[in-house]
Amino acid sequence: MANAYQPLTPSGKGARIGDRRVTDFSVAEIRDLLARHDWLAFEDHPVTTDEVVEFMGRFGTLVHNDRRQGAVLNIDASKKDEGEVLLGEGFLPLHRDGALMGTNIALVGIFCVEYKNVTGGGRTFISDIDNACKDVPAEILDVIRDKGIEGRPVDRYYLKPSDTWHWIPGFAEVDGHSYLNVGFPYRPGEQASWLLRIPGVDDDRCQEMFETMRAILMSERYCYYHEWDEGDLLLLDNRRLLHGREAFKGQRALANLQVLAA
Ligand SMILES: [Fe+2]
Q1: What are the residues whose beta carbon lies below 5 Å from ligand 1 (ion)?
Q2: 84 CA to middle of ligand 1, Å?
Q3: Local mean pLDDT, 10-residue blocks, the chain (262 residues)
Q4: Domain ranges of the chain
Q5: CATH top class, domain 2-260
Q6: What is the C-alpha separation between 216 and 197, in angstroms, rounded?
Q7: 233 CA distance to ligand 1 centroid (A)?
C-alpha cells in the first residue's frame, strides 16, 4: 500500500495521503512513509488539534516552551503582537525548524485550524533539497560547506532575540547522508524574523548566492506548495527538507508541533 502514493514534486518527494485519517496509521507505518517520501500531506479526512497532539506524542518528546500552549504553537496572524514576523502574514523564507533555537527537531507537524478568506498566497512550501542541490553550482555549495552560516534571531517570537551571531554548519548529517542545513535570508524590503550571513563573504555576494539557490530550491521541479484546507496536516522530516510560507492576507491559523530528535 505504501507504494501507492503519488509524489508531490516532479523530483519524486512528498506524498499526498487522502485515503485514510492520519490517526489510522501506526507509528511504524508513518516512519516508513517518511523515510520513503520525506514529507506527507494528509488531506480530506480532517482531524482536530487534540488528535494531532496525541498522535504526534507517540513519536517522541514534543517541544514545550513559553511561546507554546502545551505542545502547540499557534500561528494565527490575527492574534500576533506587533513586531512578530514569524507569527504574522509576511513571507517566511526556506528554513529548518529549531536551527536558530539550537533545538534538534526530527519531526514537524503543521496543522490547519482555520483558513478563511485567504488571498495573495498563504501556501506552505517544502523543498526537496537533496535533489535540488544537484542543480546548485558546486562553488556555492563548497562555500557553504567550508564556512557554514551565521544566524541572528531578531523576531519577538524568539525566546532570546540576540545581538550575537550563531554559527550553524552548512550541511548536517542525517543517517549517514549529508543535507543542506541553511536557512535563507530575507530579501531587502521584507520584514525579517532572522538575519543570515556567511562568514567571510560580503553581503552582495551572499545575497547573490542565496538568490541562485532560491530559484532552484523553490522551482516547481523541487518545491511543493500546499494549498491549505481546514483539518489538513503536513508531517515533515525536518532535517531532510527546508520549508517556508508565502505572504498572505486573511484568516489563516495553523498549529505547529515539533518532536525532538532522539
Ligand atoms: Fe517552520
Answers
A1: 97
A2: 14
A3: 80 96 96 97 94 96 91 84 80 93 94 94 97 98 97 82 88 94 92 93 96 98 97 97 95 95 91
A4: 2-260
A5: alpha beta
A6: 19
A7: 14
